[in-house]
């Protein structure tokens, strides 16, 4: 186990290095001189030269990368060009809504995806199954931002049940915070539930074909017991994999969804930074999210131990 | 020499053509046919947009602003009185073009990377780590960041999304190459003295076509969704060009007054992506029975 864990951690290093190189290159693929673009056309040559020096742009690229990487490893992602505050602080300020939205969105995706997938597999080839699969197809085709707008029209404008945009921290009252997060969570969760529906269904169908399921049925166990005690638990392992996959889509989707519902999270931060050409912030957000994603996937892999005692590395 | 030609001709006759195969596929799953027809209609609408559009998609007509859907404007008008039907039709052009060009670029690049990685173990280690690294970013976030560096334009949207989706093709090609390269017919081809390039082109690439075609279909769908999201966020195609994502974004402000501005282009996205996914699923079932969803 320990050997496996260290092996996995070491395997992450090259991936994270590539991530860092890509993030670093973001500034350098910009056509023209980044310093000139940042300062605008009115800046004098001396100002541009000064900024080039401040940003380290006058040094060799390899040196720039090494310096940037070294600082990033110490948690220093530079300073926001627009707000003039450390990028790390800027990100931390915007982290709350994104984490809340992602977790709630994942919950919606699982609460919709797993039951629908189970029903679909148990009533295989029935109209319920057809309906569930059609639902999964449709869910995968709906852009989360458009679903979000449709939910706003329906539940905020027409019915007036929920607020259409904004954010309240859970610290100031869980129920109120939930009201603001419910529509975004559904807009994010529903499209992401389709993959979970399909994986749950095929994974459960695989398990249901096994001999021990036939034995359980032959013993006269009730259908519900067979499905949940015997089949579902064994079907969980592949489902776990898809949860890991869903996380990437979820974090990407959160970026878009936040902008629909004006949630002051990472997604809104990164889009407004693009419009302000605030490269250090963009780099910081992208680096942090990719690293988080890599680590979360490692965590999901380790969860196999908990779910499936047969898994031994 | 003559004999060989005859054998070749008989071979061709025995092998069903593309259209025969497609027809068989549609017969097996009727819904794939639906996807095909819908995509065809959308493609036609895009090509014929200048003929089909009742109005100029950029013409301002302020007296007719924020009209609901009725006979004169079947999809309604926006805050400048521009006809949403015409804008949606022109948006189809851009969406489909981005989808197809991204697919072509990412597939071509992915095939090159996958072939090199699959045939050269030393390059494999490096290339696949790089691909893993690129895939560690959420698609849309990486595309947004690339757009920040490249600047908003249709060409840059294509560049950014192609970069994002290349690893998916590369992985599929690589694993297909690894399986096929160990097959006996490849060994046989090598034994009769076929050159490395010939083996790659005539045997390896042809036999790994199925998973690549399936992946390409899904990438078209992802790319169309990606373009819509980028343009919706205002970091994709500049707003003066009508795109589905862009129209939805403009309609966001008038959600209470004129929800139709956002509804119709959104429905166009759903319809296109749904058809592409149906097609991709159908192709997967048909071309690669091992991957079939039970």
Features:
heterodimer, A: 313 residues, mainly alpha, 78% helix, B: mainly alpha, 74% helix, elongated, disordered N terminus
Main sheet overview of chain B = none
Radius of gyration of chain B: 23 Å
Main beta-sheet annotation of chain A: none
How far is the first residue's CA from the last residue's CA of chain B? 48 Å
Q: Which runs of chain B of at least 5 residues are low in confidence (pLDDT < 50)?
A: 1-12
Helix tally of chain A equals: 12
Spatial gap, N to C terminus of chain A: 6 Å
Quaternary assembly: heterodimer
Q: Count of DSSP E strands of chain B?
A: 0
Category from helices, strands and their pairing of chain B: mainly alpha
- Approximately how much helix is present in the residues of chain A? over 70%
* Residues in helix, % of chain B: over 70%
Order of helices and strands of chain B: HHHHHHHHHHHHH
- Rounded to an integer in angstroms, the radius of gyration calculated over CA atoms of chain A is 24 Å
How many distinct beta strands of chain A?
A: 0
Order of helices and strands of chain A: HHHHHHHHHHHH
Low-confidence stretches of chain A: none
Task: Quote the average pLDDT of chain B.
Answer: 84
Q: What does this protein look like?
A:
Chain A is 78% helix and 0% strand. With 313 residues, chain A is mainly α. Chain A is globular, with a radius of gyration of 24 Å. With 294 residues, chain B is an all-alpha fold. Helices cover 74% and strands 0% of the residues of chain B. Chain B is built from 13 helices and no strands. Chain B has helices at residues 2-14, 18-28, 30-47, 49-52, 84-119, 121-135, 139-150, 154-181, 184-191, 196-207, 209-233, 244-252, 260-287. In chain B, helix 7 crosses helix 8 (154-181). Classes of the chains: A mainly alpha (313), B mainly alpha (294). Chains A and B meet through helix 1, helix 6, helix 7, helix 8 and helix 10 of A and helix 6, helix 7, helix 11, helix 12 and helix 13 of B.
